[in-house]
Amino acid sequence: MLRLYDSRLSGNSWKVRILLSQLGRPYERITLDLAKGETRTEAFGAIGRFQRVPVLVLEDGRPIAESGAILLHLAEGTPLLPADPYLRAQLMGWLFFEQADLQKPLAIARVLHLHGQAQARREDIARLQAEGYPALEKLERWLARHGWLVDDRYTLADLAVSAYVSVAHQGGYEMARFGAIRDWLARVHGQPGWVKLLPDEAATPGA
Amino acid sequence: MLRLYDSRLSGNSWKVRILLSQLGRPYERITLDLAKGETRTEAFGAIGRFQRVPVLVLEDGRPIAESGAILLHLAEGTPLLPADPYLRAQLMGWLFFEQADLQKPLAIARVLHLHGQAQARREDIARLQAEGYPALEKLERWLARHGWLVDDRYTLADLAVSAYVSVAHQGGYEMARFGAIRDWLARVHGQPGWVKLLPDEAATPGA
């Protein structure tokens, strides 16, 4: 059976759980405690070369690191990953944009807030938001003219890009200004098989 | 003919030029002047949705944005992009790692140095290096045990990850401490068809 190493709040790991659910793939979930250093052990380093979650271990025992690589591996051959080369190039563009431009400014601001450091680290958060808002504005501009990121239907691009955007408000981002993003998030969260980050949170985080 | 929009110093565009050269694909090169705002025009925005280089326009006129998406599109079906699903997952992991962890701390520190702001922005550079060094150390640890990033041969992963690492010293990074990276860069730069970033620079930048 597939084995997923994640952590409780990791948005990158959440993407993999959404995809596994939407593909109907059973898996064993091993949730590591980052505060206890469980990603920094030698044993975990042997399967995750960057010492971070998520890592997916395939049925044959071989590990895949990096959420984007895991998502693409699992989605290959399914409707979530278009076979057409041009659509695939558009999808890849969104996946790289999310990892290069969106993920860190959203994720780090969120971690600082969740750890009660919003006040003490307000300059860092302001700097992160100065990077994150322009990326969100690029997304908003696209979604003001398109229902989905690629091919006018829900694909892996929507799944991957929406995860950290769904919880951006937890990092102090004012999301009310992004109407097209809000509507798109509602469509994404309504997809069959979509799962929440945490079992006890509101149905549509970020709404 | 393929048409590549780049800028003179863009490392992400340089990757595409190296790949086009190594694949023997002719192309028209249009170098935009970022200082003159040539990426921020409405005309360029129509082909590059994120208003940045590189953008590759295919023979049929359709544009591809984001260097990672361009590289994968061009390399598909060539020996630089393994067909094996597991090797491909490893390669994707390196491409995402480079965009998420390496590229910005290396590229932005470099731009600040090249623009003569190394002293005025030294706190920003210190913060960037605090992100960039750990990523370089992860790369060094891998290369201390492997000749190449994937499949024990030169692939698109080596091409993509090496570009900004090749010019990291221009951002004030002390690269002498990274012996395995230095040897790997020499192997990468020795690959047939590899091209320099600028015609007038030293043969092996970063060496």
Explain what this protein looks like in three dimensions.
Two copies of one chain form a homodimer. The model of chain A is unreliable at 203-207 (pLDDT under 50). Helices cover 49% and strands 9% of the residues of chain A. Chain A has a four-stranded mixed beta sheet, covered by helices on one side. The first copy, chain A, has two domains: 2-75, Glutaredoxin (3-Layer(aba) Sandwich), CATH 3.40.30.10; 85-189, Glutathione S-transferase Yfyf (Class Pi), Chain A, domain 2 (Up-down Bundle), CATH 1.20.1050. The first copy, chain A, is globular, with a radius of gyration of 17 Å. Chain A is α+β, with helices and mostly antiparallel strands and 207 residues long. At the A-B interface, helix 3 and helix 4 of A face helix 3 and helix 4 of B.
Describe the main β-sheet of chain A briefly.
4 strands, mixed
The percentage helix of chain A is 40-55%
Strand percentage of chain A lies at 5-15%
Amino- and carboxy-terminal Cα gap of chain A: 35 Å
What is the rounded Rg of chain A? Answer: 17 Å
Order of helices and strands of chain A: EHEHEEHHHHH
- The first-level CATH class of the largest domain in chain A is given as Mainly Alpha
Low-confidence blocks of residues of chain A: 203-207
Secondary structure category of chain A: alpha+beta
CATH topology of the largest domain in chain A: Glutathione S-transferase Yfyf (Class Pi), Chain A, domain 2
Number of self-contained structural domains of chain A: 2
